[in-house]
Amino acid sequence: MIAAGAAVAITAVLGTGFVVQSAVADQNARTAAIVALVSSGAGHAEQLELNRERLRDRAEHASETAVTGASVVIAAAQGKTDATGLSESVAALSHVTLLAPERIFELVDVTKTETANVHASTTEVDRVAAEQAAIATAAAEAAAAEAAAAEAEAAAAVPATPARPSAPADPNAAQQIARQLMASQYGWGDDQFGCLVSLWDKESGWNVNAYNASSGATGIPQALPGNKMASAGADWQTNPATQITWGLGYIASRYSTPCDAWDKSEASGWY
Q1: How far apart are CA 188 and CA 252, in angstroms?
Q2: C-alpha dist (Å) from residue 40 to 3, 28, 35
Q3: Residue 204 three-state SS
Q4: Left, alpha or beta for 42 (phi > 0: left; psi -120 to 50: alpha)?
Q5: Nearest to 89 by CA among 264, 79, 80, 99
Q6: What is the pTM of this model?
Q7: ω before 101 within 30° of 0 (cis)?
Q8: What's the start-to-end Cα distance of the chain, in Å?
Q9: Residue-wise pLDDT tens digits, 156-198
């Protein structure tokens, strides 16, 4: 086209005056300069160089983004799933300045794929772990609730220890005898003495002559029949010490302690 244009211009010069010839000469000069520039390839080379720089910038930016995302996923995968392949892809991209843009884009694609795979695997591991933790928590809560229910049931099944009477501050003569015999013969203290006082208060009022006409129970301990107390002494009918000695022996052999005898009396009305 340039050659044809030059030919036209030359033809115009031949058919016109000097002014036309001068204008055509200038145009021909500019055309020749353009032809020379195009022929040398300088403009095309500059454009290619600019394009290569832009391509590298895009490749390096894509690499940086891919490495940043992959690093987060690798950290989250520690101890959960294998991220070896992804780590190798990231390591390859660390030499990005030595790689051609086309190779960088290839590695970026590989890194993105590996990142997605490792992330999916880590997410599944986390899901399974959360599910197992929930199951374990539910089992522990159920076991704790069952243990609490069993404990409450056991506590309800065991009767509360009944309140025991305390020893009198100023016991009478018969009670003084009982306290001394309890301590010397059985090693019982005031806690047991309080139960004994209440037991025999209920039975006889600590009266050596007490007698139950309907049953025949006799004396302070209400022995039935009364002559059982003869085993403690011939004066069992009148001597409180003899009656108390027999009564303490009966309690020890039958109930172990005065408080156990008191509990039996409270529960059934007799001992």
Answers
A1: 11
A2: 17, 18, 9
A3: coil
A4: alpha
A5: 99
A6: 0.43
A7: no
A8: 139
A9: 665 556 678 877 777 889 999 999 999 999 999 999 999 999 9
